[in-house]
Structure formats: C-alpha cells, structure tokens
Amino acid sequence: MNETYDVVVIGAGPAGENAGDRAVKAGLRVAIVEKELVGGECSYWGCMPSKALLRPGEALAALRRVPGARAAITGEIDVDEALARRDSLSAGLDDSGQVEWVDSAGMDLVRGHGRLAGERTVEVTAEDGSVRTLVAEKGVIIGVGTGAAVPPIDGLREIRSWTNRDVTQAKEVPARLIVLGGGVIGVEMAQAMRWLGSEEVTIVEMADRLIPREEDFAGAELQDALEEMGITVITGARMVKAERAADDAPVTATLEDGRTVTGDEILVAVGRRPLTDDLGLDTVGLEPGRYVEVDDNLRATGVDGGWLYVVGDANGRALLTHQGKYQARIAGDHIGGKDVGRGAWADHTAVPRVVFTDPQIAAVGMTEAEARERYDNVDTVRYDMGHTAGAATTGQGISGTSQLVIDADRRVIVGATFVGPHVGEMLHAATIAIVGEVPLDRLWHAVPAYPTMSEIWLRFLEAYGM
C-alpha cells in the first residue's frame, strides 16, 4: 500500500534536513529518506571532522606567533587526543542525535535507498530488500549531495586509495602522504596530516597553482606557507599512473614528465560527482548521473508540474553546506506556499567560501577575472592584512594579501578575498556589503573598531582614494 505525504525528501544531509524542516513549519507532513547516516557528508566525513583535524596545528601556529606565549609550547600535538576530538565532533559516526532532531522537527524518517518511480512517487528499498512506496502530494525534494570523483588514471581505481571519507576518519597518520588535487580538500588535509605528524606530504595539482578557482595571489601565498612547513607542492603536473606492489605496500605515483612520488597513502581530492546515477531520474525525463538543473525556486527544469525540487550539491550551483541550507530554506518555503518572491540568487552572486588552512583564505562573490567578464569598468584595491593594528597585536609575522573587486560604475563591491589567520570570521562583513549592494560612499561611515584586523576595511577605502 502506498504511503501518502505532502512532501518526500530524499537525502537527510544538511540541505534535505533544512528543506524538510521548513516544509513542516509550513504545516506540511514530511517524510525524509536516508540510506546512510542522518546528517550527511558534512557531519561525518567533511566539514566537522576536517576542521577538528586542522584545529590543533592551527592553535599551535597562532601561539608561535605570540612572543611570550611561544615559550610555553614544550611538546608536540597529542595525536590520539586530536583524533578523539575528531571522533567527538563527528559523533563517532553515530547519527542517533541527528535522528532525535528529525523526530523533534516533526518529520518521519524512512531508512533505505530512495529513488524516483515516476511523478511524485518515491520507492525506498531497505537493507533487508523490502520496498516502501511514498507518494508526495505536493512535491519531492532531492538533497542527495555528492561523492568523491576518481579520475581515469592508470591503476588508480585498482589500488587502495583514500577519499575525503578515509582521510577525515583515519585511525592513524601516514608517514608519507600523496595528495592528488590542490583544491580545498587537498590543501586542508595535506596541512592537517603534516601538523599531525606525517613526515612527507606531497601535493600534485594539474593546474598551475593551488586552489585554482580563487585569486592567483591566494594560491601563491598558501603554497609559500605550505612549503615553509615542509610540504612539497607540485603544480602544472598530471599524474598518469598509480601502483602498489601489494595492498599494504607503498603507492608510487608517476607524473606525465616521468617523475615519481612515493607514499604510504594517496588521497584523491580532485573534485566531486553528483550522486544522481541511481535516483530514478530517468523515470521523470532527466538524465541520471548528472547535476540537475534548477530554477531560482530550486525546481528541476524539464519536469512538468513544478513538483520536483533539488537542493544542495546535487544541483551543482554551489557545492557548499551553507549554500545548500540556503537553497533548502527557499525550496521548503516555496513548496509550503510561502512564495516570498526572492528566489535563490545569492548562490549566483555572493557565495562565501573559506579554505581553513593557515593562512586561511576567505572569499565571497566574484574573482577579478569573473568580474571583468561581466562588468564594463572594474577596479581592484589590495592591502596587506599584516599592516593593520589588529595583526600587530595578534602576533608576529602575520601577513596576507586581501582584495576588493569593485563595479566602478555602481561603486559597489562585487567580490572580496582575504588571506591571513582567522580571516574566515571577517568574511560576513564582505558578504553583507555585496548582498546589500552598499555604496562605497556609505561604507565609508562603517567605522571599524581599533585595534582589530577589521581595520582593513578603512585601509581599503583609503587606498581606493576615499
């Protein structure tokens, strides 16, 4: 017998949970389907455990910049305690706390693999093979996220390798680690493992710089910092082969130019792929295995009736937890009849993103190159974070280029990048300025407190000639 709900959500990660919660608050009856752990990738294999692994080294680096405090450092990181804290922040891979929240929010949790079986219909296959059919009277929301992409490199799929799930839940720190990919996951985990005791860490990046989607200077300054702490960074290099003599033997990676790199583990961090290949998209006229295109209310385009919504990573707009939750709030409101007329536009123009390395790289909106493609007149202004009074009081040796990208015709900020310790906490000011389209002449009257690193906002405006 079919079970009828107003809304069926496939995927109980952050995006799915938030979409379902908003629909419940709109008075709808919601079922949420999850085949793995309630809470999703971010809680157990992404955001939370990765930051827990980075934090001990980041804290030590901060202390070493402070005269007087650095003398108090007398030992090394307690790796066992660091891993235990990681386990605590990722709940020991136990989702019972998240399940309690789902129950308290008023959603019905259905365990199993959910896939579409035609219009407004979801079949859920449980571990024991039994199948439940859920019918959604108002709509289905997909929030299944992404998984690690594995490139077609000779031998790579045949040998034991790590993805983000393996490295964030590692029980031991490898003596030698090869990191394939210099994006966010790659650089964060390279630094975390080095801080935690890896003797050799090598990053291999095909592009000519690290974090290639951000400003050039950000990748260059991060590379300098990683190399200073003993990490080898190889850019502009393509890996063509990976092999192990046995499953427990070292891995040898061969580069296109003939160079080889040897490690005990290899982390594959080249990107993500949508988990839409076994979702039944073909039953509603969509192509499996691809990101699902959506409109600004997060409804799948190409599906008649406007009943199918896709939130978070699976729509490919912005593969970030906070953006997925933002989309989820809009989709949940929309399916609940609360059409506030705003749609999801911030994920086109004001996406905040942070690389939690030391130095951190925090950015929002457009890079300079992206802005020059869109606007006729673009200005940039740069300032070194180390030249603020706040940096001087925080510690010695603090530096990092920061930049604003300005649409000169409107005199508003369209992009911002900050490099330096803890600059992720400064990012929301730039996000508000971009979303609010605050004119520079008005921003001049937003006075930063002294002595803080936020003083850089005044220095930006002064350097711009105001």
Key terms:
466 residues; FAD/NAD(P)-binding domain; Enolase-like, domain 1; 7-stranded mixed beta sheet; 5-stranded antiparallel beta sheet; 30% helix; globular
Concise overview:
30% of the residues lie in helices and 24% in strands. It is of the alpha/beta class.
Low-pLDDT runs of 5+ residues are none
* Overall domain count: 3
Helix content: 25-40%
Total of helices: 15
Please identify the top-level CATH class of the largest domain: Alpha Beta
Biggest pleated sheet: 7 strands, mixed
Structural class of the secondary structure composition? alpha/beta
> Percent of residues in beta strands?
15-25%
**Gap between N and C termini, in Å?**
69 Å
Q: What CATH architecture label of the largest domain applies? A: 3-Layer(bba) Sandwich
Query: From the alpha-carbon coordinates, what is the Rg to the nearest angstrom?
Result: 24 Å
CATH topology heading of the largest domain:
FAD/NAD(P)-binding domain
What is the total tally of β strands? 21
Task: Return the average pLDDT rounded to an integer.
Answer: 97
- What is the general shape? globular
Overview of the structural elements:
- Its cofactor is FAD.
- Residues 5-322 form the FAD/NAD(P)-binding domain.
- Keywords: FAD, Flavoprotein, NAD, Nucleotide-binding.
- The protein is of the alpha/beta class.
- The protein folds into three domains: 3-39 and 95-147 and 273-347, 3-Layer(bba) Sandwich (FAD/NAD(P)-binding domain); 164-271, FAD/NAD(P)-binding domain (3-Layer(bba) Sandwich); 359-463, Enolase-like, domain 1 (2-Layer Sandwich).
- It has helices spanning 14-25, 40-45, 47-64, 79-89, 96-105, 164-168, 184-196, 216-228, 321-335, 346-349, 368-374, 389-394, 427-435, 440-443, 456-463, and strands spanning 3-10, 30-34, 108-111, 113-116, 121-125, 131-142, 146-148, 176-180, 200-205, 232-235, 239-244, 251-255, 260-263, 265-268, 272-274, 308-310, 352-355, 360-365, 378-384, 401-407, 412-420.
- The strands form five sheets. Strands 1, 2, 3, 4, 5, 6 and 16 form a seven-stranded mixed β-sheet that branches. It has a five-stranded antiparallel β-sheet with strand order 17-18-21-20-19, sandwiched between helices. The chain has a four-stranded parallel β-sheet with strand order 10-9-8-14.
- A hairpin with a 4-residue loop joins strand 20 and strand 21 (412-420).
- Helix 3 crosses helix 4.
- It is globular and about 70 Å long.
- The termini are far apart.
- The model has no long low-confidence stretch (mean pLDDT 97).
